[in-house]
Amino acid sequence: MNGLIVFNSANDVAYQNLNGPLTEKICSIAIAQGLLPTPGAPLDSNVLLQIFSPIISSQRIMHCQFDNAYASFQCENGFNLTFGELLGFTFLKIGQVEIEQLMRQLGVAMTLTRYCYGANLFGSQAGAMQQELLTQCINCYESQLWQEDQQEQQAYLLEALPKLLINPELKRTVHVTLDALLEQLRQTGGQQRTHALLLVSNKLAALNSTRQALPLAPADLLFLAILSRALQSQRSQRAVAVFLQGVTHDVNSGCVPCIVHISRLHGHQVLLQLIEYGHMPLTSSIYDTFFVLQKIVAVQQQGDADALKPAYESLESFVSQTLTALKRHLKQKHDDLESCVKKFTARWENLRKMYVEFFKSYERELLVRIESNLPAFVEELKQLFTLSLASCDIASNQQLDQLAESASVVEAKLLEFAEFLAVKAARNISIDAYLEDFPGLVHFMYINRSSGQMLAPDLRQGQPQLLPKSKLWHMVEFTRNYLKKGQTTVMWKDRTFHYSYFLWFEDLSGGILKCSFDLQQHFLTTGFGNGNGNGNGAHKSPPEPGCLPMDYYSELAELCFPKLAGGKVRVYELFCIHLGLVTATCAVEHARRLVATISDVVGEGAF
User: Fold this and answer.
1) Which tens digits make up the pLDDT trace of 211-242?
2) What pLDDT was estimated at residue 67?
3) What is the per-residue pLDDT for 539?
4) How far is CA 191 from the centre of its chain?
5) Any idea what DSSP says for residue 578?
6) Other CB atoms closer than 10 Å to residue 198's CB: what's the count?
């Protein structure tokens, strides 16, 4: 049984995605309670609301009034529920897997929702297309976790995109081809902020971007891989609108509107052309305003007067930035947007005056008036978000046709290498090549968390495996649990294998950065970073390492090196599995030489 239900602030069902066994289970409960007449009757939102309303109402009370919301419920027969909150929506993930796995799946589902909807979650303006896209992406991600192809499982388990290793000459040819593609988009369509990605059998062969484009975050790469897989059974050309994240250290990151054009080429190649659109300072400030508004709503419901004023000041700052960006970037507005801006400005002035009066007297009656006016202000903000994007120069049908033509040009240029790339992708890295120099090494996984890419020997399906899949997956979960406690180096062994895990930081020149910060003590007392940095942090579930639920490693780097500018620290992970006879000293030495060997093979700046 597996499913996701999302409730809005009024406890109505905004989204549901339930598999067959869970639907049957809920239907049997509904029939027993008299909510459904007979078996086979459709399971609509009203039935779900009546069954889950007591749990959701209790969750909101615990969250809003006590700031101590439920993280999960454990029920009989391994039936578990986990909870999440995002922009006023309550996410309920249901499944028969371990709580930790279910919480990770919930975090990924919430992230995919942001990618599909941006700031206006489940907005009526988005229509059924975005909802269908979200369902396809969630189903694709979860199906990859349980499929038999271990190589695909490995990538999704680690939340990193496999890097395809090709010789320097072919690599240069691919990059030159993609650069020519981006230049053509600039000249013919006037597109200044673009990216081009070439995937071969779901491995990253190349990523090229223009200078004006916002660098992609590790989560963006993995999302695009999920997106291309989710739509793979459909026509060879497809264009969708999404909202990428962008690197966290950029001031405009968080919500980057993009058109993604997906083209399926010869030999398992997939070309993704990304066109960023919208006015980034405006989109970013509106996006931030949504989150500050939710903070204010929570603070007001908790009755925390001391926290309300700084929250209001943050809201005032972001609204001011939004209005400034509107004047600067949208000087010629169409009628609908002009009307929306006037309504938004008027509602904000009314709200601002009420807050000013409240902070003079702190009268409860004024706070009630503020709370009654907030929903209308939020609706105007949603409308502003939608109309400001609609007013931008999004790729027209003619420009989309040009993207299809550009993809055909790329396919023709790479046609003579297509079969080679397909064969290389099927057997990217072999552990056999490392056995002579690293005796006893069974498997390794090397991940650049700053780029979101990974290198690992192929786990070939259908052949005898020295390393059982269960051992590999247990190793990852085991090390994550220790990483959440502040341990960046972990070693242990069982009767068969010796396991080692290393996480370290480097500067842009490749020099090792030593962290003097006591991670273990910090995690023990406050949780993680700013996410749980409050008095109850030690009692809340720590965030899960990965890139999709949150950019865990970027925040970890910021926590360890607060004085270094964002993007100046690279984070790496290395998992090694040796035969049990290998000593800890030998494993450490192998790890050092293995990283150096891989760097020589891959080349500088390629990983």
Assistant:
1) 999 999 999 999 999 999 999 876 688 999 99
2) 76
3) 35
4) 26
5) E
6) 24
- State how far the Cα of 142 lies from the Cα of 153, in Å rounded to an integer: 10
Cα–Cα distance between 6 and 47 in angstroms, integer? 14
With both helix axes pointing from N to C terminus, report the angle between 305-329 and 280-302 in degrees, rounded to the nearest 10: 160
Which residues of the chain register pLDDT less than 70? 147-151, 234-235, 331-333, 393-398, 460-465, 527-542, 604-606
| DSSP conformation letters of 30-88 | HHHTTSSSSTT----HHHHHHHHHHHHHHHHHHHHHHS----EEE-GGG-EEEEEEETT
What pLDDT shows up at residue 568? 92
How far, in Å, CA of 409 to CA of 405, rounded?
Answer: 6
Tokens, residue 425: 């992708």
pLDDT given at position 334: 75
Task: Please count the other Cβ atoms lying within 10 Å of the Cβ belonging to residue 50.
Answer: 12
User: Under a CB-based contact definition with an 8 Å cutoff, are residues 258 and 272 in contact?
Assistant: no
Two structure tokens written together for 483: 């990483």
Confidence at residue 324, expressed as pLDDT on a 0 to 100 scale = 92
CA–CA separation, 469 and 320 (whole Å): 53
Say how far apart CA 390 and CA 84 lie, in whole Å.
Answer: 30
**DSSP designation for 303:** T
Residue pair 232/223 in contact by the 8 Å Cβ criterion: no
Assigned token pair, 520: 């273990």
**C-beta separation of 36 from 47 below 8 A:** yes
At residue 327, the pLDDT reads: 86
Helices vs strands, H then E, count in the chain = 17, 17
Alpha-carbon span 179 to 173, nearest angstrom: 10
Identify which of 291, 304, 292, 290 has the alpha carbon closest to the alpha carbon of residue 535.
304
Question: Coil, strand or helix: which one is 259?
Answer: strand
DSSP notation for 391-439: TS-PPPHHHHHHHHHHHHHHHHHHGGGHHHHHHHHHT---GGGGTTTST
- 3-state secondary structure at position 268: coil
35 Cβ contact list (under 8 Å, min separation 6): 47, 50, 51
Task: Find tokens 């071969």 and name the residue.
Answer: 200
- Three-state secondary structure of 461-502: CCCCCCCCHHHHHHHHHHHHHHHCCCCCEEEEECCCEEEEEE
Q: Convert the pLDDT of each residue in 86-116 to its tens digit.
A: 999 999 999 999 998 999 999 999 999 999 9
> Which two structure tokens, joined as six digits, stand for 371?
């709370």
**Rounded alpha-carbon distances, angstroms, from residue 100 to 69, 107, 538:** 17, 11, 17
- Residue 287's contacts (CB-CB under 8 Å, 6 or more residues apart) are 118, 119, 254, 255, 385
Specify the amino acid at residue 464: P
Structure tokens at 259: 């058109």
What one-letter code names the amino acid at 77? N
CA 586/CA 588 separation, integer angstroms: 5
In the numeric block, which tokens belong to residue 48?
């779900």
- β-bridge pairing 512-513 and 570-579: unpaired
Sign of CA dihedral 61, 67, 71, 75: negative
Measure Cα distances from 330 to 148, 194, 320, 391, 396 in Å: 51, 21, 15, 8, 19
Confidence at residue 94, expressed as pLDDT on a 0 to 100 scale: 96
